[in-house]
Amino acid sequence: MIRARTWGIVCAALVSAGNALATPTAQQKCDEARVTARKVYETCVDAVVAKDAKGVSVDEYKAFWKCRHAYFKKWTSFQSKVSLAGSTCVGARHADNGSTITDNLTGLEWEKKTDDGSIHDKDNIYSWSTGTPYKGDGAAFATFLTGAGTGLNVVGFAGANDWRLPTLAELQTILMDFPCTGTGGGSGCICPGACIAPSFASFDPNTQIDFYWTSTGSLPSPNLGWYVYFYFGFVTNNPKTSSYFVRAVRGGL
Length: 253
Known about the structure:
Elements: H1 2-22, H2 26-54, H3 60-78, E1 94-96, E2 100-103, E3 108-111, E4 126-127, H4 139-145, H5 152-155, H6 168-172, H7 198-201, E5 211-217, E6 224-229, E7 234-239, E8 243-244, E9 249-251
Antiparallel strand pairs: 1-2, 2-3, 3-9, 4-8, 5-6, 6-7
Helix pairs in contact: 2-3
């Protein structure tokens, strides 16, 4: 009986210790919240893209805005959660690393653009593809990312060799959040000119208020790719042989 009682005490102690070890930290809770929010956001964006691929008529401007707005609101909600205090979910959303910017909502690290004539220069434009069969063999990939002697992944920009073009969902996360009522692009639902998030722009004033390529192709048309227009926050697709601006990204949740 004594032995059984002793064994019961030991088991109870082990369970208690296990529960103590299993208690998540504020940062772990933050990471869980960010991953969950990201999944919901990306599912929303994918649903809009799927409708486009199916040929369903949709107000893309407003549909994508809804996805982004709900995602950005998550960051606002994180700020008041006591359980997240002390984690990277609370405080400034964007952090300046010198040559890059980290987004504490998405976990992405963004390349900063420059005005110095280098591979990072804000005036450089690149094609997505050279033509049929419309693979990622344009200058955005062959020069910007992997070009001999200067490509970001060749020189190990910012100590990393995994730079890439952002997905359609990712690139939209550096757009400004703005009110939207009525039809997208109408007077009640349009970004006021330059549409980059102010906290991002404060660390990088060199964003062109123009078209930026994403890595996302457009179905069912292999010759088209999605881009984000940083004037008014417009999102659509265009021929991959067109030359637009690019911004590299790495990481993510």
